[in-house]
Amino acid sequence: MRFLQWFSSDLAIDLGTANTLVFTQANGIVVREPSVVVVNNQSNRIEAVGTEAKEMLGRTPGILALVRPMKDGVIADFDMTEQMLKHFIRKAHHGRRFARPRIVIGVPSEITPVEKRAVRESAMSAGASEVYLVEQAMMAAIGAGLPITEPTGNMIVDIGGGTTDVAVISLAGTVYSRSLRVAGNAMDDAIAQHLKRKHNLLIGERTSEGIKVEIGSAFPVQKALHMDIKGRDLVQGVPRSLKISDGEIREALAEPVKAIVDSVLQALERMPPELSADVMDKGIVLSGGGALLHSLDQRLREATGLPVFAAEDPLASVVLGAGRVLRDIDLLRRVSVR
User: Fold this and answer.
1) Of 254, 276, 302, at which residue does a domain stop?
2) DSSP labels for 233-247?
3) Is there a domain that residue 20 lies in?
4) Residue 5: what pLDDT?
């Protein structure tokens, strides 16, 4: 065991629905890739993982299947998750096969015991010597630089691909938390469904995500934005292009954005009054890819009347927080979930 640990390098992993990030103490974030696997249906052989696999999205022949091992922040396909983790762990360790790292993994706050066991077993099967699970919201708060060990209220809203985690943290503990299975992927689906319903235009996942990134917004923007998109006409069955505006996409995103805003308002209603004063002073911090949605901070300011800020690196907040607790074993034990 000592021989194996000599070659090990402890890892922090944000095992997300949309993307997986891996952090090492020596080199920081060494993997930042989509949580996607391409498998050969005939041989069951893994053909591609991560970025290479995502490039094939919507373009794979019948013999190949594109698999998303994670759904709503938890494991949907155990075998594929294990293979994906093995690939990313080897990549983080530059191909060394004998590494037996201690791994910290961020999970949604309302994860079930069965889902916890699935994450632990996947990581152990992928080569971990020990596995610690920590709530994503807690790790996002640490990664965003919030003083989570102090006796003050810190409110974090972590909007990932599959889940939105809303939490109020004080003294390294979670005072209130809620995991909502509405996040970035739900926004992509809402855009695709809107264009299908209103314009009879069928678009792929990559196109809907691109629309969200380019002209998606949660609040009216100062300068109107437009975008030309391509898809398949559902009536005539031929390729067609369409010009869309930010206002139309804002309308498409109204439902998932409202669900996130409502979950934040619910958290503010339910937190202890002593912590409300802290949050009123310090505001709400946004993290995760969803925090990059144009004017989401403005929409939340309008709804809550509180200051709202995005973390310095929203996409990496969870893995950066997990990386910090790797260096502090006492804090890791305090914040890990059983």
Assistant:
1) 254
2) ETTT-SEEEEEEEHH
3) yes
4) 42
